[in-house]
Each structure stands twice: as C-alpha cells, then as structure tokens.
Sequence to fold (1031 residues):
Amino acid sequence: MKPLQRKLLRELMRLKGQMLAVAAVVACGISVFVSMSSVKHSLEVSRQRYYNRYRFADVFVQVKRAPEFYRETVSRIPGVASVSTRITADVTLDVPGLDEPATARLVSIPEYRTPVLNDLFLKKGRYIEPGKPEEVIASKPFLEANHLVPGDRISAVINGRKRNLLIVGMGLSPEYIYEVQPGSFFPDKRRFGVFWMGRRSLESALDMSGAFNDLSLTLAHGASEKDVIMRLDNLFKRYGSLGAYGRSEQLSDRFIVDEIKQVGIQITFLPVVFLAVAVFLLNIVLRRIVATQRDQIAVLKAIGYSNEDVGLHYLGFAMIPTAFGAVAGTLLGAWLGRGMMDIYAEFYNFAELVYYFRFEDVALSVLLSFAAAIFGALGAVRKAVQLPPAEAMRPDSPALYKPGIFDRESLRKKIPVSLRIIVRNLERRPWKAALSVLMISLSVAILIAGRYTNDCLERMVQVEFSRKHREDVTVIFNNPMPPGVRFNIASLDGVIEHEYYREEPVKMSFGHRVRRQSIKGIVSAEGLQRLVDKENRQFGMPPDGILLTTTLATLLGVRPGDKLQIDFLQGRQRHGELLVSGTIDEILGLSAYMNLGALNRLAGDGGALNAAYLRLDQAKAGKLYTTFKKMPGVAGIMMLKAMKESFNELIAQSMNTSTVILTSFACVLAFAVVYNGARISLSERARELTSLRVLGMTKGEISFILLGEQALLTLSAIPLGFLIGIGLSALLAHALSSELYRLPLVFSAVNFLFAFLVIVFVSVLSAFLVRRRLTSLDLVEVLKTRE
Amino acid sequence: MPDNPLDRGEHVEVLRITDLSKFYTMGEVRVDALKHISLEFHAGELAVLLGASGSGKSTLLNIIGGLDVPSSGKLFFHGREITAATEAELTAYRRRSIGFVFQFYNLISSLSALENVQLVTEIADNPMSAEEALRLVDLGHRLNHFPAQLSGGEQQRVAIARAVAKRPELLLCDEPTGALDFQTGKLVLDVIEKVNRELGTTTLVITHNASIAGMADRVVRLRSGEISEDRQNLTRMSPSELVW
Fold:
C-alpha cells in the first residue's frame, strides 16, 4: 500500500465516529432507494407476468343477461383478439364456525378445459370435473382465513336454493389480486371469497342456459380500447350493461397500479433528502480536514506530489465512507425489499410474487451516492488543490470577527462572555449555521412525516369506522327491492335501528366530460350513516340537488350551482338534470349523494332499495345471522367491526413497518448531523477552548461555549423542522392520494412531542460523547501544537 | 574520488537568480519582501542564508523551491527558467530536483518514520531506499516509530531523510534547527553536512543564527529584502565545533 493510502486509512480510522455517521446516512438513502426500486420493479414484473401467463383480459363488461351468440358478434369487432363469456353471481355462504353469512362471488369456468381468459392458478387440489355440478375451486385467501382445505364442503344459497358445494381446489386469479367484496374497500378474507364453478351447473342453478352476464376480451396489438368500449356499450346497452371498462377501472388492478405509483413516489423523495444531508456532512467534515492539514498539504506539494495526487487523496475521505454506506445500504435495501415483498404477499394475491433484485438499481444508487460524495467534497478538495504551498506552510489567518448584535454597549454588560463567544461564532458564519439548522430540521421533518401516516390512518379509522358508519352490519340485496322490504326487516327480532339506501348507476355529464357513477340515495345524513369529510367535519344532506365528493366534482369539472346531466342506465333509463348543491371531501372513493325521495322521483319508478344498514341487539345477532343466511334476497353481509379489524391488521401493519423504518432512519440522520456538528466545532475550537481553560475557565464553562452553540442550533431547528415536516406530509398526502382514496392532513400532538424528544435525546447523546473528548483535552499538548 | 563536485574543483552552476523581486499587498500596504536579488549557486555548494525574521530569506527559499512565484525577475535551474514553468512543470521540478527540510519538520503524523520517507521514494525517479535514507540520518533503529513517538531532533532527521531520499540536486533547509535545543540542533546540522559531503547535494540552509554560518562554503546575508553580504568561507568548520 502506498504511504498516501495508508495515511488516508489511518486518518479515516481516527475520524471513525464522523465517518460512520456519514456512511450511515448514505446507507439509509441507498437502502430506501434500492429496496423501493426493487420492490417497484418486482411488483411491476410480477403483475405483468401474472397477467400474461394467466391471460388477464383487457376489457370487461357486465350485463343482466345477454344471449350467448353475442360472443361471436363481439369477436368480430375490429381490434378484439379473444373473447370469453361467463356467468357470475354473488351468493351467501354458510361457513362452518362463522355466525354471520359470508359472501361468495361465483364465477363460471368451462368444465372441459381451462378458461380462455382470466385463467386460474391452481395452488392446491385439482380442476373441476365434468358432470360433477357440486365441485368448486375457491380462492386461497378465503380458504386460508377460514381454515378450509380442498375436500371440505360448504353450503351456499344460490337462486334461493341451498346447495352443498365440494371444494376441490384452491385457486388464484389475476382478476382478484386485490380481493374485496363489491362495494367495499378493504379485504375481509373470512367473509368474502371467489368461487369458480362449472359453467353448466351455474347455468342451471341461475336459469341462464344459452346466456351470459359477464364478458371479457383481450385487445389485438395496437387496437383502440376506447373504440372497442364504445362498440360494446352500443351492443349491450339494452341488456342492462352499466358500461364496459378497461383494466384501468378494474378495481383489483387499480389498487396495484396505485400501490406501484406510491412506491415510486417514495423512491424519489426520501433518498433525495438523505443524499442532500450526506452532501452537507461531507462538505463540513472535509473542509475541516483540509483546514487542519494545511501544513501537510504544503509538505506533499513541496515534496513533489501533484495537485491531482493531493485532490484524489482528500476525495478519498469522501469516497471511502460513501462506499461503505453504499455497500451497507445495498445489503440493508435488499433485506428491506424482501421484507416488504412479504408484507405485499399478505395483501395482494399473486400467483407468484417474486423479489427481483436488480443490479441496475444498485448501480444507479451507487452512482448517485458517489456523485453526492464528489459534490459534497468538491469545495474542500478544490481548496486543498488550490492552496499555494508557500501559503499553506503558514497557519491559517485568524478568523475575522466583527462586533455583532450583542456588542452594543448597553447589552455588553448584561451578557456573559461565553454567550458572546457563541453568538459571534454563529454570526461569523451565518451560512454554515443556517445549513446546520436546515439539516437538523430535515431530520425533524422526516420524523414528523414518518409518523404523519400513523395519524392519518388513525383519522381514517375514526372517520370511516366510527363517525361515518355507526351500523353493525350492511345487508346487501342481490336485486333492487321494493320499498316494502323495510317492513320485513323491521319485523325481524333483534333489529334496533334500520336505514336503507338506493344505489343507482347513472351516466353523469357536464359539457364534454362524462363519467359512469352510482348515485347513492339516502334518507338522512344524521342516522346510522353520516356524511363526514376527511377533516372530520359532518355534513348535512341538502333536501334537493346532488352532493358530490370533491374529487368527483373535479373530474367532472363542476362546481356547486352547476347543472349536471343525468342518464339512468337501468330501469326506465330516464334522463334528468340535477343541481350540484355542494361538494364533500371524503376519504374513500368517489360518491354522489341524493335524497332518496328525490332520486326515486328522478328515476320515475316507485322506488327501490339496494341495501340496509342495521344496528343489532348483540344478544340476538346470532339468530338473525342464521335468518339472513336463508334469505334468498340477501347477497351478503358486511360487518363494520370485521372490516375495521382487517384494516388494522393489514394496512395498519404495513404502515407501521414503514413508520418504524422511517423513524429509525430519521434518528440516524439527526444523530449524524448533530454529532458531526459538535465534533467539528470541537476540532475548530480545541485550541481556543484549551486556552480559556489555561486562563482559568472551568470545564463546565468551556462545555457551555461549545455545546451551547450546538444547543442553540438544535433548538432553532426544531420549529423549522415542524414546518418542513408539515409541508413534507402535505406533499406526501397529495402525492399518495388517488381516485381510490385521499389522505387527510392531520397531526397529533404526540407526533410533534415524539420528534422533539428524539432530537433532544440525540443531541444529549452527542453532547455527552463530545464532552468526554472536551474534558480529556491535554492543556499542554494542545497549546504546543501548531494550528 | 569525492562525491562533491566542489571538492573535485568543479564549478558547475546549478541555480541562477537574476533581478528577482517579490512584494505582497497586505490590505492597503505593500510589503517588499525581496528587492532585485541576483545570485548564483554552484553544484555541491553548502550555502547559509542569514537574516533576521522579515529579511525575506523564507520568501527566497520558497521561490527557489518552486513553492512561490516572484513578482518580477527570473530563476534558472541548470539554465532552465523555473519562473516560466507551468504548474505541472513546477510539480515535476519539486518532485525530481528539490528536497525540503522545514523548521517544524512537518511530518505526517499518521505515518511512521519509514512511511514518511516512502512518501517521497514512491514518487521519485531514482531514490535510495527509505531504510537507507533513515540509516544515513542514524535512525535505522526507529523505522516504525510514529512522529509522536520521536524527539524533536529525531523528527527533524526523519524530515531530512525524507528530503534526501530522492537524491535531490538541491536541498533547501528552512530554519532546520529553529525548534531544537543546542545539542540536538548540532546533531541535525551534522546530518545536513554529511549529506552535502557524501552525496554532493547543493544545500541551502536559511537561518537567523549567525553561528551556523561557520559550517558553510558560502554565506549570504539578507537584510530587508536585499543582499547585504555575500562571502566565501575559506575553511568549513565541522558542526560539532560550532558554538551558540
């Protein structure tokens, strides 16, 4: 090894605390980048492979009932590659060990071969056999949640008749990567499952021979999805179609695409912050090294080392810790990425969720961090290179101090010398002080943003599961019921409160903007269901007109007071005009609310009901559930408590993981910035502080001068960090919000308190470490050495 | 045959300085460090540049060593104009031809004695081995000691070993005994004298200590940036005979 390399290594070892801090910050940034990009890539590839291998359709349309020969008609539409028709139905299940009825989505599959489109991945068991109508394949999450295995039996009420089904296989489908009950946002694996059943047996059970109610197709290369959808809409309008749609509106795919997008957002914002801090740290550390080694630089140059040799040598001080950070960050990132994929595997049902660790991601992140290292080191290295050797031989000229704000005659007497030294130091290099404050505040900001998602989730749970909904269960009817159904329900023993709503699919248009959307007709906004926005404010139901969620209003380009054109897609398919009476910024989904009576009048029918919210007497709930299981008109039941539990279990858990990671990274960041700041201060001032000790100051007094400056910087960084944290959270909330959900901007006092305590703890820790060095300063030695 | 060309009666010009001036501006004040200096040095010569602090001797040494550039005038090394050299040529000049010894030794504290010398042997064209250089200054037994483990005189001897290891043509010593006591200082001067005698290296020692002048072939005295005296010693004293 060459002497200069040896010098570099030994001095890095001497500065190991500071260098480790730099490496740790780089490692955090790289690990976020590597884990997030590899997760994003893995999700994308897994999704695409799954879709390709199991022939996931491009366009979907649901109808009431259409003759089978339309399959031929559709396949002749230009741009259509292959077509598949199916029969689907939502039915209630009697799951062993479960009081309340569960819902199954029955999907037909051919008996003699595997489906042309939307094929199944058979995880366990076997495919159904022809001539055995009771055989079904059930979805994996449902079977696992209910501890069922192929070979078990389960009874279902199909078209009013109880059927005993035999589970022969456990399957998964690209259509249900995110498996939720229609009308719900969060999976409830115990109470909802997809069942694949032979086409023949479903035809006979639902009286659908020679007909279908679900069609999906794939597009030929280069075909226009929009044109095909338009043709399909024309074809199937009279068969009760609510409109064909592409993958982008398929619920499961939308959730995954949103997730991939969100991961992408985190890739950009977090590593940028970490690398910025790394740049800053390298800058101050290297400047200090160059300043203390002026004479050594002079000697090297006098001996005949070239500027490049000297420059590269000092660049090494930046490159080596960065390289360490990059290696550690890559390993940590691979580990984190794998862990995240395990969480995704819980949440999303891929046939094969493979973790792809990409060399490109590592290469890119390493490249980025080295660019950051060079950028951070550049100023100091340039200084070392440009230092004329004759000048470097002389000690650095004393820093220029000027009278500052505390030096006015009136103030001077009141302020102790030590405080004046602190203030003058900060005044002398305001940019350095400002940068230190900014860097500390960035770590405060990441702490705030990391815990913001927690607060946000709590608000979501509070709004969605307690404020907005107060029912115990939602009973969903499989067909619209006449208004009289309420007397039947009210007469059931154990029903304390009951409330109904109508959900009417319509086409809304305003100018050239058109959207398919359901209008929810509700009786009141003060009963079991309330209208609550993401800021937890309650809304009243306007007596007339239509109330739109803000996102929907934005999509349609309407404002309160505008007139919206409405075309009903079912029943008499009437046309109407509605006044937009207001907007409400809800957390989940897109909705349009109307007074039930007004909706009935506009539809021009005698009124219809799609579901009931019920509050139950818990003592009688079990018996009621048994009744519901037998009722042919009931498609399923959604339990608020179960949804809340599954929300907490799945989403909250994965969010908590990311909060823990972010919090630990923010702690690393805070420690690195504060500790390095104090160490550099110590190195810059050791001589001065020791001289003060020689003059008779106590250890406490000189500690106050050194640590007081750091404390002042840290304290002023906290409020700034709070502000940046709020801004960062707002940015996150905005970036992560989609049509599916909007994140409310809420902060608990605990969040700020936590960030405050972490920063104080980290500062005290680094003060403790630095003070140990400060008190062990050798008075004689320090004065002997030349600065 | 002796290694020193002077002893062989040869007078080869190594260094020629013509009308060299250097001034600094400090704030609004112009400081003339060197005023119209002209000098020549010959191969194998051991010259002492005497002067009080502020006389301009360090500035002259820095310019000769290629560490600083004059405001006007020229400097030739073996007939090649150093004052017209580029940065890269200056680096090569220092790397090949010049050895430096500083008042404060300026050793790299994180490198051992041997490694400090290797700093030079690494990049020189035809160096002696680092061990050989250290043996030349009688430090063959302290190769692996770090600067903090060496006395001041030993550190200065490491610095001299570092300077001569590349077999420079010109050895420049800036107050080599300035930070040392009398006895140790004499030991260091002994080593410098030995290098000059045995290797024939042209040596310039600058000092404010007039007693050292006795060991030189030639004494140049500077005062306020000008040459006030330039004389030859008829006989060179051994450093051990010096008294101050």
Remarks:
- Chain B has one domain: 43-67+96-241.
